Amino acid sequence: MTIAITGASGQFGRSATELLLESVPAQDLILISRSPAKLEDFAARGCVVRKGDFDDRSGLTDALRGADRMLMISGTRVGFREPQHTNAVEAAKAAGVSHIVYTSFIAANPSNPSMAVKDHVFTEALLSQSGLTWTALRDAQYSEAVRDAMAPMNIATGRMISLARNGKMAFVCREDCVASAVAVLLGEGHEGKVYNITGPELISYHQVSELLAEVSDRPVTFLDTDVDGLYAMFDAIGIPREPVDDLTVANFPWNSDDMVSFEVAVRDGYFAVISDDVERLTGRKPRSLRDLLHAHRDSILAAADAMGHPG
Q1: At what angle do helices 205-216 and 297-307 cross, to 10 degrees?
Q2: Phi/psi class of residue 107: alpha, beta or left (left: φ > 0; alpha: ψ in -120 to 50)?
Q3: How many angstroms separate the Cα of 47 from the Cα of each of 3, 5, 9, 197?
Q4: CA-to-CA distance for 116 and 129, rounded, in angstroms?
Q5: Least buried of 1, 215, 239, 258, by fewest C-beta within 10 Å?
Q6: What digits encode the pLDDT tens for the residues 166-186?
Q7: How many beta carbons lie within 10 A of that of residue 161, not counting itself?
Q8: Global pTM?
């Protein structure tokens, strides 16, 4: 069985490749990236590395030839992924791929107001109508997003501004999402299944602020706001409202339309989803947000101090 991974040079793709190499021969992995030079280390280990781009259906079809299963890692351009994902699914069909494992998002239903989720609703429908075998892995928000983006900023400023109120989410570590995806790629009986890949507990943003104070031993005050207030906060730090290719703020490709609509969905309870699918797929319990943050306390504080701490 040959497995292709799209976006293989990203964090998820590289981690999935490393885990797959523990079970399958390197020559049975086709690693696809817009920047294949970033995968030279895996090519040296015997993996097949090919150039492929969601914006180039023909080229992606060629890159996928010979693959039996495909890990389709969703694109990063929130709000603009529908044509890209259409290209990916059509390329997989043309190349003869039989089973697509797709990294979706929790609560992927049409009523969800999150801009990011709308792309996943579209893609899941696309897969169900494709005639291919598919599996959807609905990943919760990464705990690493709290560690890398939220924590340094909130600790540096001493406050968390949010409109999410008492809405909750079961933050999940990327390593658990990767392990779940690999389990499906290597396993059987997952055809047409939707799995909710979540962490072990539902947590509100208010509780996240308390956890950041606990980890940092510094005050982090939670401040309620509304939609206009959250947009104003993002505007003040230079985050664009719509996605802009190759633009980052504090090294993150943020856009506020995505983040504001996401918090509205949190506030309204859409993301209050928790399951035991990680344990059922991988045989281990998922790692908690608290454990991840405490394990990376030093790097979080260093990042916060680099931003400037008000005390």
Answers
A1: 100
A2: left
A3: 11, 11, 13, 28
A4: 21
A5: 1
A6: 999 999 999 999 999 999 999
A7: 19
A8: 0.92
